Structures are given as C-alpha cells and as structure tokens.
Amino acid sequence: MEKVEILLGGLNCANCAGKIEEKTQKLEEVSKANLNFINRVLKFEIKDGYNKEDLIKKVIDIIDTTEPGLDIEVLDKKVSANKNYKNDLKSCGCSTGG
Q1: From CA 5, how far away is CA 63, in angstroms rounded?
Q2: Fold of domain 2-74
Q3: Do 66 and 4 meet the contact criterion of CB atoms below 8 Å apart?
Q4: Tens digit of pLDDT per residue, the chain (98 long)?
Q5: Which residues are in the HMA domain (predicted)?
Q6: Side-chain half-sphere exposure of 34, counting CA atoms within 13 A
Q7: CB contact set of 91 (below 8 Å; sequence gap of 6+)
Q8: What are the helix and strand counts (H, E) for the chain?
Q9: How far is the CA of 50 from the CAs of 31, 45, 57, in angstroms?
C-alpha cells in the first residue's frame, strides 16, 4: 500500500475537514484516511492495484468541492498532480459560518 499526504493551506473549518476526511475514506481505492485539522494534512493509504495519480486527482476534486479556495499541495514529490489554489477569503464557505 502506498501512502499520500496532502497539505491543505488555509483550511479553517473543522466541519469541512471532517467532510473531506469522510468523503476520502469512502472512496473504493482508499484503505484508510485521516485529516489532522491542526496540521492541515490529509493522509491516506491507497489499496493495491489502483492508480496513485488518478486517485490524487479525485481527492483534490473532493477537497476543492468541499472547501473551495484552499492552497493544496501534494507532499509526495513523485506525483505531478499538485494543484495550487489561492484563498482570498478570511472564512470558509460552508453553511456553518466557520
């Protein structure tokens, strides 16, 4: 199993962090997912037989859909799926008002 870490710069909403972790964990390709809200790092393990780059793109889409505007950085330097976002907002965009 391969492990991936993604840094979520600008993540300020614990509710959104929980949603990102839950949606990532539910992916068929993921065996385990954990989002450390304090460090703003999402870690997940890829089940054997799945394409790492395709899965990272899926997870980035989940992150961007759940909490748009984050600075997303894949900490695994071997993968070219790094997509950067700029967050000009001071609060999250979810309905909890975080």
Answers
A1: 13
A2: Alpha-Beta Plaits (3.30.70)
A3: no
A4: 899 999 999 999 999 999 999 999 999 999 999 999 999 999 999 999 999 999 999 999 999 999 999 999 999 655 444 555 454 444 566 655 55
A5: 2-71
A6: 6
A7: 12, 13, 97, 98
A8: 2, 4
A9: 11, 11, 13
